[in-house]
Design goal:
The strands form 3 sheets. Strands 4-3-2-1-5 form a 5-stranded antiparallel β-sheet. The two termini are 32 Å apart. It is elongated and about 55 Å long. Helix 4 (148-156) packs across helix 6 and helix 5 packs across helix 6. The protein is 30% helix and 20% strand. It is of the alpha+beta class. The protein has helices at residues 5-14, 53-61, 132-139, 148-156, 163-170, 174-186, and strands spanning 19-25, 32-39, 42-48, 51-52, 67-72, 118-119, 124-125, 129-130, 190-191.
């Protein structure tokens, strides 16, 4: 049992584990079951009910109390991409150009114009990170005036937290946090 499935997903990610996370919650008519397959800590497949890919991953990542099991597949090769078909997402191999790529941190990132998603090229979660201007804004707050919520979010962004973790820490919903992230990115303080 867990009280927050996002914590389990994060542990698997930072542990670079390969395997299948199987989850369920509810009973009888309310029973929901799903799974996420990981390769080297990266989510490569997700399914719950009729949803799959990004939609399934985002839905599962919001689950609170649920039952789970993780079957380790170390040494086995699995697909290296998430099978997304989202028309909003732009990444190599999908007739679009990746934006916001960053090779200096734990994951490459892609801006989707909507809610935060997984980068299909690497199958990794997107982790917003501060730019040099963002670091300077925190070191010299008198030079760049930010509203309190944006400054708080900027402090939490470390290149290792995805939007779900940021929303939980900010005690805000995903849409509110995405709006703040978009504002910070337009200001040049972060990249998504």
């Amino acid at each position: 049992m867990t009280d927050n499935l996002a914590d389990i997903i994060h542990i698997i990610h930072i542990g670079c584990k390969s395997g299948t996370l199987t989850v369920e919650r509810g009973e009888g008519r309310t029973l929901e079951e799903g799974f996420i397959t990981f390769s080297g800590g990266r989510a490569v497949e997700a399914k719950v009910g009729q949803q799959s890919g990004l939609a399934a991953f985002n839905y599962l990542n919001m689950w609170q109390a649920c039952r789970f099991s993780f079957i380790n597949h170390e040494g086995q090769q699995t697909s290296s991409t998430f099978p997304f078909t989202s028309s909003q997402t732009s990444y190599p191999g999908n007739n679009g150009a990746a934006s916001g790529q960053y090779s200096g941190g734990p994951a490459s990132t892609h801006t989707t114009g909507g809610l935060h998603s997984y980068g299909a090229a690497e199958g990794r979660p997107l982790f917003p990170f501060r730019t040099q201007l963002g670091d300077a804004a925190l070191q010299y707050p008198e030079n760049i005036q930010l509203p309190r919520m944006q400054r708080r979010l900027l402090l939490l962004i470390n290149g290792q937290r995805n939007i779900h973790e940021l929303a939980r820490l900010m005690v805000r919903n995903l849409n509110e946090v995405q709006i703040l992230l978009n504002d910070l990115e337009r200001s040049g303080l972060i990249q998504q």
